[in-house]
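(Protein data)
===
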Amino acid sequence: MFKEIFEVSTTPVAVLPRQSERMAALDLTRIIAMLMMIQGHAIYELTIPSQISIYHFPYSAWEFLRGLTAPIFLVVSGAVQVFANKRQDDGSLPGNTIKRRLKLAFMLIFVGYLLVFPADKVIHLLVIEGSVWQPAMQVNILQLIGASLLISLSLFRFTKNTKSLGLISLTLALLFTAITPIIHIVPWFNILPEGIAAYFSLAHGSIFTIFPFTGFVLFGIALGCFLKTLSPEQRNLYLLKYSYILGFVLIIFGLLVFGYINSLNIHFVDLLKANPGMTLIRLGSVMVILSLSTFLFLKTKRFSKYYSILGKRALFIYTVHLIILYGVPWFHSIAFSYHQSLPFYLSVLFAFFLQLVSLGAAYFYETSVRKNPTARAYYHYALASFVALLLFV
């Protein structure tokens, strides 16, 4: 049932370095994004609010970096897709690749909703109040990634080569960014059902909407298409030498756009998500971070095998940290028991612990199924059975 999230490559570890040499810098960037997200969630959820003032340095910088974690992950995920979705001789995607991507997309959406399941059992859905459905329909990062995968997969199927994919993705990314303010002033909940409108509007509590966040995936696909035109040796060089320059250009342009949109005094639910200037600022910051992470990768290439293992398990790491920190609808966890009630230093210590446990769980899973391939099936069946028990018994 959960095979697509926890599925591992059957390629022996010894073979990984050559493949990961080309994209291990992106894997490292994805790990960094996961570590940033884990510490951001833990510190925000557990720390006494009076000890963190996001309007004063250094907490203002920390808050800005928190806003970069999803864009980093989405851009890198888009770029990685270009290398992962290998085309056939006629330019089409193999049927098994399409099936695998569809299963992953729908499974991510399913897990995203499962983590906020609004009742104890499935049968209770028949009697719960309508107001309970609204928070259950909110769109978070897993649902957003699933929806973005469906959109990007359609682009891969529509195009036949890397050049056309890159051009169309970049065009759509710019379009998504430009029309985001228009999308965010439309009263979607008066037009569409709750579950669909939540993908377009922040009004009912969604955190990640298709506009602008799928745009980051499309920007990533365009970046991946460009990198694929380069030789493996040139890819890291480009990210190291030129990515930060493009990043600073985008940041400067984004500041100008942000100021102009802000001067219009449009009453958005969330200005930082609806203003295309902030999208460009965040995209530029991602490009700068890509340069920095590539520099770090080149200094630590001997660990590239581990970057590949953990980078590919990023969604596993994300899900594990959510369960440990927030729990699931049937079992509360530390964020419920100690919500914004711990001193800052304890929150930092717990965030570090949560990072170690989440990364360790991913590494243990990966290595255990490589040593014993049948263990993977046991993990999947055990997890699916446990979820079924919670939902139906």
In short: The chain has two domains: 1-66+309-393, 70-299. Residues 70-299 form one domain. The beta strands are 327-328, 331-332. Confidence is low (pLDDT under 50) at residues 1-22.
